[in-house]
Amino acid sequence: MIALEAQPFEFTFELATCALVIIDMQRDFIEPGGFGESLGNDVSLLSAIVPQCRAVLQAWRAAGALVVHTREAHRADLSDCPDAKRNRGNPRLRIGDAGPMGRILIAGEPGCEIVPELAPLPRETVIDKPGKGAFYATPLGALLRQAGITQLLFMGVTTEVCVQTSMREANDRGFECLLLEDCTESYFPQFKHATLEMVRAQGAIVGWTAPSTALLAALSRAEPVPR
Questions:
Q1: Which of the following is catalytic: 18, 129, 132, 177?
Q2: pTM here?
Q3: Choice among 53, 81, 112, 162 that is catalytic
């Protein structure tokens, strides 16, 4: 059993029954020219967490535990992208439009891929999701149950939208969840702060939060999962 110093209190887990879920670390959100920038956002806020995410991912891989990556990705014909989603705001580019990295948030396009620093390995699970939550219209829940997973560590973007939605979905499905505070970010820093407070309020009503340094220290002392 691994114990982490966390908020609002200690979080304990076993590597064999815990998965690292990396939410939407895609070029379209993190690199200039993508969907995030087309909405008028400063994408450098999100790209700043890539080194911390990479350190956690490398340590988690070395520990032999399960890794899940998600991508917000739609079909080329946009049949899984309702107007209520595509027509929000006043972006320079909308989902499905041609951008500098291909069509925005369309599966298979360069911009839809995960940033190279966090690229999935062949053995790692990649979930394409048409919504904000990782469980909506995806096989994620069934895959986790089949693997015997009961707890989830989250990192990724954006904190208040896809990360928080996925954590709440997971909580409703009975998973215990922890969010790595410095491995998640928002285009609006105040939204990230508010989300962290909401997640861990009322005795971890949605989940725990902790810095990645606490996880890395714990993993350095842990025995890897037998392969």
A1: 129
A2: 0.97
A3: 162
